[in-house]
Specification:
Blueprint: H1 31-42, H2 48-51, H3 57-62, E1 67-70, E2 74-75, E3 85-86, H4 96-107, E4 111-116, H5 127-140, E5 145-149, H6 161-165, E6 170-172, H7 182-185, H8 191-204, E7 209-216, H9 222-234, E8 239-244, H10 261-274, E9 278-281, H11 291-306, H12 310-313
Length: about 325
Amino acid sequence: MKNRHPEKINNPNNPIKRKPEWIKSKIVNSKEFFTTKSLVNKRKLVTVCEEANCPNITECWSKRHATFMIMGDTCTRACAFCDVITGKPKALDPFEPYKISNAVKKLGLKHVVITSVDRDDLPDGGSNHFHDVIISTRNLNPDTSIEVLTPDFLRKGDAYKRVVDANPDVFNHNIETVPSLYRRVRPGARYFASLELLKKSKEINKNIFTKSGIMVGLGEKKDEIIQVMDDLISAKVDFLTIGQYLQPSPKHHPLDKYYHPNEFKELGDIAKSKGFLLVSSTPLTRSSYHADEDFKKLKEQRLILNAPSFSQKNN
């Protein structure tokens, strides 16, 4: 049985707090938005933009940016923050790699983000399917950069290596929250397993950019956020995103607070001082928001970092 809002938090009197003025999505009613929507619907593609009720959908789709969600719309986990359906997933679609690669070509995407639900029901967690989608997309779109946002492949051994072997340009796995909140917010995951996934992916392929994100407003403390930054730096993560948690429904994890834009700037400045190649820290920051522009910035920052100094040039 599928459930859009499973009983994740035993708190029936959990009203959603009123959004402050700075939590405003850009409403864009453009031809490009409807072109993207039409293509997604016609080809029966699943996007995290729709499934997770992303606040940036109209802006992104108007720019023909979409994050494709593979392996169905039903997740085997019931994370307390997430609006994706929980239940028993359907069998994998063997034609999905072809469908995704053709959609990327049809939309003329220069950068594509591919994510998925958790598929704990599969022996490999879906890593081989990820591999096939990446390879098919690259074969048909050789000039398109590919970013993946993967599940943790918990207890699937070395299955994650199949994703890394497909050589995506960006390997993203979100840490989501601080360790003290994992049992309530992300009960099916393990904090240090997620860190290891990011660390090992970078060790296997140092050319891949690694990326991770955290939500704030769940009840975490500032020093806990800073500790997560340090842990991600130790795992050699290149890019950190920090965004505001928006409670999808009263049955989801309660919102503790809305962070002010100045607080996001402060967190962003702290993260930059830690040594990340790139940091995005705003209320509406999401993993895939401005992903194409951020990929360009990542490449630029790596070039700057690896550029020889004046003294090296003269030696």
